[in-house]
């Protein structure tokens, strides 16, 4: 096999592992990993990828890789771990889980300022500077979308982006810039928390805008936030924590503040104790934490960016820097502490109050202190939590709540207070950097990445809905719009297919979608999550993206009932959502009685957090849909992103342990697939990510060039510049309005132009020389085109004259044919006139001769009339008949006249010889009788002749009409057949298109199943669960060999490549041999298609092809037009051997080579390439199958190619001259050659 070809094969833990090919199958390929010898791995063709020749080579831009696929991308990221990498203009940043101050220092900021993308190593600063320069150059606002899983480093990346913009393009680090940067610690303290996957996870999304004026300088900013995770305030899982601010209070607050707010250890607060209560500390700060502050859970947490002891001080400093007064700071901390103490209020059922609850005796102190923090009376707070006021006809009545209902009311109040507090903090942050107006802005989006856990609730549903929208935006901006631009500019780049997730978005947000159904159920008086889930399944029971929990690939999800959850197949994989809390979490409104108690507070700050509603009703719970609000916010965000230019940063989490130097390949590969980077790689294989207008490029370098060059047209200027620089034509393309660059090539071009003055002088001379040559070539081309145009005009004029003469002849023939026929018939009448003249000679009467002349004149007059006047066929026939009858009558009258003269002579003779006359009378009478009979016979014959001629003319006319009708009928039949054929072709094309769409849909479903399986494996690894595996039964070789008596039903696809080849070489069963050959070449065809797909990106021209381009093109057309393939067709061997020779281009100087092929039946037996400057390439079936043409003779189209087939003698002469016989004999001796007719000749 192709043992020298290194490939990447899938691996459960590492993502991919390196190996070599052992065997090729019909649908799969077998690879032996280098790190696991003798343990082959079988994988589908589309999951095996070619590897770099030097696997230790790393590149800064993945588009520079020799092979561009997801396996080489993953390997390059492994090699560049702790470094940042590009994929074209998209940045991939792997979280190193290590502090790297040198990488983000002020020196680095200065170094990247004003540099084009690709000039310096990949960096977040490079993307930030690109966004700034695009904003200034294009006069369009820019957005940077930072995406990735929780723990991938999105928040840190966002901070570095903002820091670069403020330090590099701000007003010397003024107040506004400081406040924009200092807002981050404050927002993180109240909006971030520790999760199992991230120690500093943002539990809300934010879009930070930095506004610039026309200069451009920073004039202000704005922060938009989305979807704060409110349930975390009241409950966290075992290894997670609440929001950081609570632990900052416990660990870092001064003693005075702690005493005033009664802050103790986290374990003493109900809202903190069920999660992880340990502090984030360093070695130094851990020593300074007194015992009364330490958590009951032994040990501590460590993170390079986190410290709870110092966190409180940082938050206070941030509050001060954004303009908050000490009083405002204390108010925020007091409300935060009130939330903590509110959670400590416990309730018990009261015997004195039927069905009601009261505060337990142990927590009355917490009630009193919470009420004091909220400036309320204890009794008022207790009554608001334990009662509901309802309006009735008799007045307001109080409804006592049970203990569980009271706990829910307490938690709802705590979540509402904290949520409104966070809203207020964001509002105050926006107030600290206001602006009147701005020219443009740069926005940085930091929002939670795609989330999937063992238990997924409403928060994960909303986050994943947001990520579906962002993925669609990514597809449209990077893939769809990119390909539309290529087509519009006429670059001819191949189309890249990607999965459109619009159906998944519609499932969630469209009318009768999941959000709509959730809102409808939430408005019902007794809303039930089971009813909601049931309605979702019923409404969308046939939707591909939705299914029931028991179809999950994870065993833990299969225990759920159908009405307890549903599975959505997202773009990143299937996620199972449990809906028991969907209705409660979707309602963002407090009961009116709880809001009323807030409005009764004497604390103006607390009251300001809850704007008072108008026309409120005490008894009614106002429903405010969280989903509807988030949908509106997300819609506005997408509109803003669509209206701006965009850059993308994909943050990658290297491992689930959040430790340094641990690279989990499978997890990273899943993140790359979820982020759409695989589709980007497909596009960038033939794409041009960098582009600029001709005029913009002209303006950028106009100042570097002399005046005589700066006056050129921008397009001509660019062409001259590129040819003078000697750039490879493959590195750039000229569109209609822009010039496009391959990844990294624009930076090379920019560096060449900004070189030293001496190099610039040489460049200017090259540009001038190219302009002279280009103008001379243009003049030559114009002259040549003028000569060609002149010759073409002369040729066309001669052709037109010839065409005109031919058409005139046809028109004249059609017009004058009846007159010509009449002329011929008229000429025949002169023969009758000659007869009449002979009779007139014997008559002495002068009238007879005059009658002859008169008849002759009439015929001539008739002929003249035909020539000079327009007559119809009927007129000419009538005139001809009239003259013919007159001629017959004249002949008859002359004969009668002649008779009269003869009678007179007889009478004279009787007088003179009366006796002689008497004797001869009877003889004369007999003679006269015979003469009369002859006359009658002549008359009869003349009449018959006339009738015959008339009938012939009529028959000829009828035949002409029938012939014309026949031609018209044949033409109609031909057109009808063409129409039917066209309809059949259209139906066939529609059927092929339908099959293609079905195949695409099937492939998309298979890809979705693969993503679901990988996601299930990741969840199983985290939660120690089990994944359902689906295995296909294997078929042994012996089972296949037993079926040799029925070749049409054989399944040869399970045989190995070597076994199939040995069967071809040894089998004597003709039908089995034909089926084996068909399967053998089908595998070769699949393998070569895989190799073509995984070809090198920058060495396409040097690769050896198995057949000339026309032959491959013919095979592609044959596959397109062929009927749907049958599984195992029986191949009929054509009689005899056939030999072919096809020329091909061999070199850059127009040299020609020849490709020779010997087909034994439908398959190739010998192949040879003759190159002008190289050693001939000789290939023999059996030994060189992987490098030979795998197509059938019919598919190659060689039999239909003119002058391609040659004689056996011609082939053998070239074969022996190139040493083919010696090579073939060596293959036979080593038992590598397949039995063919050529092999049989050599072994005789």
Automatic annotation (TrEMBL):
Species, as recorded: Stichopus japonicus (Sea cucumber)
Compartment(s) of residence: Cytoplasm
Annotated spans, Disordered: 942-964, 978-1006
Protein name: Uncharacterized protein
Domain Myosin N-terminal SH3-like: 2-53
Keyword ATP-binding part of the UniProt annotation: yes
GO molecular function terms listed in the Swiss-Prot or TrEMBL record: actin filament binding; ATP binding; calmodulin binding; microfilament motor activity
Family: Belongs to the TRAFAC class myosin-kinesin ATPase superfamily. Myosin family.
Residue span(s) of domain Myosin motor: 57-754
Region named Actin-binding: 634-656
InterPro entries for this protein: Kinesin_motor_dom_sf, MYO6_lever, Myosin-VI_CBD, Myosin_head_motor_dom-like, Myosin_S1_N, MYSc_Myo6, P-loop_NTPase, SH3_Myosin
Binding site for ATP: 148-155
SMART domains assigned: MYSc
Keyword Chloroplast: no
Gene Ontology CC annotation, any one: endocytic vesicle
Key words, A-Z: Actin-binding, ATP-binding, Calmodulin-binding, Cytoplasm, Motor protein, Myosin, Nucleotide-binding, Phosphoprotein
UniProt GO BP: actin filament organization; actin filament-based movement
